[in-house]
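Intended use. Records like the one below are meant for learning the mapping from a protein sequence to its folded structure. Do not use them to infer anything beyond what is encoded.
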Amino acid sequence: MEQKNLERGELMMPESTVENQKPVRKNGNRIKRPGPEERKRNKTTKARHVKCDETRPACLRCLRISDEYCKGYEHTIIPRCVAERRVLLPLSVLKAAPAFGRHGSQDEVGAFRAYCEKVAPRLSYSNDEVWQRLLLQAGQENEFIRNAIFAIGGFSRRTDSSRTSGEGYTGIDAVKSDKAALAQYGKFLEGTKKYIASTGRKEGRRLAMIACLLVVCIENMQYRPHNALRHAQQGLKLVDEISEDERSSSAETIETELMQQFSRLDLQIVGCYDVQAKDVHRKLKGEGANLIREMPASFSTIEEAGEYLDLIMRRAFHFMAYTNLVHKAQFKFGLEDGTSHKMLCIGDDERQPRSTQFVVQIEHEIYVSEIRRWDKAFERLFTEVLWNPNHPNAIRALMMKVHSITTALSLADHLSTSELHWDDLLPEFRSIVYFSKKLLEHPAYVKGQFAFDMGLIYPLIMPTLNCRDRKLRREAIDLLSETPWREAHWDSAHTADVAKFVMQVEEEGVETEFIPEWARVSSFEVDIQMSTGMVYLSCLRGVGEAAVTVEGTLDWSGT
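Structure written out for the chain above:
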């Protein structure tokens, strides 16, 4: 029968698919396997040897020439899946919103939502764990921490509305929001005092550190930088005490993220408001020397690069603070009780050099080489970000690059005795402005925000005050004033105001593009009256006996 069918040119099709057929031979000749077009035909057209019009689910030609319905196409036989052995793993713990955020008054729920959705993700450029996990966990167990979270959320609604185009909390709503936030802040301070009084000094240090961060954050949000800096100083003393006891087995466990947050807080203070004792600077300028020696030639992760950069910046800033004889900028806060709080001022008894010039130069070169090594090790990661604007670490990488350039500029200025040396650093100024602009224009960057950490304002102070290229200087000032934002105790709009004053003083009476040394400002003082919002500026223009003092005023009462 099979031979007869072969002679007629027909093949008996098995029930399986055509693809599974084995080649059949006739007189030793291989029979051609059905091709793609043949496999498209349905059962009826194959049996009648007619062309299939490939209409699905039934061929129209088949229906016209046959009294029967089209039997349709072959169904592809899907092989039965073989079950694979799977290792059962425990489910990861899902992060759920703390219960205290779902209960309470309407103001508390709204403030908590504002904190979680808007404030916490923006407070730190590199350490979300503290603000989005540790603080919420502490608030779950301690009512006074919850009060602080509600206060931050309440103050942020007023801050955000003042930075937007007019929408948000205004008038009565603004007063009500501030009043509720102040009430929560008062409860937080009272609860903190009770907690400290009821616990031992060592047992409650971790929660005391968290409370310190909250106080600094809230005081900065309320434009009280003198209070924030004073509490920050106390917090750093506590961290130093913990570091001394860290080898003790009885010491309380402190998360690494919390310690790193205080390291960045230290940068805010030593970078601009130097109120620490010289002994502290001498100790911290040598911190982590062994780690620096083991720094890799190329960083593998952005986190690794960030930890090394924080350490290098701290070492360099404390070295400059320890060896400084004079400060270019001095800030004085006039308090409501009539007293004044000065920063960056050195007494006459401290003006004597602590090391010979030769030793200082050797140390200086060590810190310069460290930032160069870091920049080279960071090159691969930073190149990946530049080639991919949507890189998840784009903002953090750009921020780190700007900070490294700022540190290098600060070190370059440290041993200089003339304002003219800044002219040789124009490429570095251009890099700061370029990368800052790139960061501010990044889609993931939220404009008009408040951040706890040092960000772009401090680095942009460099070109606004020290760059004498008129076009680039104005571009840097525009970045600060275009969409005002705040970082720690810095306000971008206020910084731009001071920079404009210094720029106008230097350019007055100068007809050339180049600003000569006799017209450049070598030092200035900012006296802020906290009760009235008036700011009194005084700067020294020129050098030597020909230098003159120029004064001016600014009104910050409306900000």
